[in-house]
């Protein structure tokens, strides 16, 4: 009987604590009327940052074979310039794999003849180049148009304020055109259509 009373007391205390916690949230509610408006802060174009319209900082990561991949090399005046660079932040989950399959099967072939685009899968969860290589092999991306790079300390993940499934599109000047969830790839395709030659 004492055990039952203790359980009831604990349940009541937990309930009271939960109600007090909820009461502290006063004006915080779910957005039950979402919109398609971009509510990110306005940015001054050309400033350095991670938002569309801003110029990104340089970074260097190792690909799954250990070779250095430097963003500046992919930009105008770099060693291997491209018209656009696409970054996809993956943790190799089913959602990420469906996005990267869409990239390989739909996006890369669509833009294959429209200039030079470099596509990078940024593995920010494996913790090592060897781990990124193992994930790349296990998921069938070895030799694909998507180059796997290891963001071992999550510096690039933090640089772009990324999350699982974030896609970033950068033009040849280093200007960011897209930094958002991949969803169905529409924003990515629109950005590449605007950046690449016809």
Can you put this structure into words, describing what you see?
This protein is an alpha/beta fold and 198 residues long. The protein has a domain at 60-195: Glutaredoxin (3-Layer(aba) Sandwich), CATH 3.40.30. The chain is 34% helix and 19% strand. The protein has six helices and seven strands. It has helices spanning 2-23, 71-74, 94-110, 129-138, 155-159, 186-195, and strands spanning 60-63, 68-70, 84-90, 117-123, 146-150, 166-171, 176-181. A seven-stranded mixed sheet has the order 2-1-5-4-3-6-7. The protein is globular, with a radius of gyration of 22 Å. The chain starts with a helix and ends with a helix. The mean pLDDT is 90.
List the helices and strands and how they pair.
Layout: H1 2-23, E1 60-63, E2 68-70, H2 71-74, E3 84-90, H3 94-110, E4 117-123, H4 129-138, E5 146-150, H5 155-159, E6 166-171, E7 176-181, H6 186-195
Parallel strand pairs: 3-4, 4-5
Antiparallel strand pairs: 1-2, 1-5, 3-6, 6-7
Brief rundown of the structure:
It contains 6 helices and 7 strands. The chain has 198 residues and is α/β, with parallel strands linked by helices.
Helix content: 25-40%
Biggest sheet, strands in spatial order? Answer: 2-1-5-4-3-6-7
Distance between the termini: 79 Å
Count of alpha/pi helices: 6
Q: Look at the structure and name the CATH superfamily of the domain at 60-195.
A: Glutaredoxin
Instruction: Please report the first level of CATH classification, the CATH class of the domain at 60-195.
Output: Alpha Beta
CATH architectural designation of the domain at 60-195: 3-Layer(aba) Sandwich
Q: Could you give a short account of the major beta sheet?
A: 7 strands, mixed
User: Tell me, what's the shape?
Assistant: globular
CATH topology (level 3) name of the domain at 60-195 = Glutaredoxin
Which H/E pattern describes the elements? HEEHEHEHEHEEH
Q: Spans of 5+ residues with little confidence (pLDDT < 50)? A: none
**Rg over C-alpha atoms, rounded to the nearest angstrom:** 22 Å
Broad structural category = alpha/beta
Mean pLDDT value:
90
Count of β-strands: 7
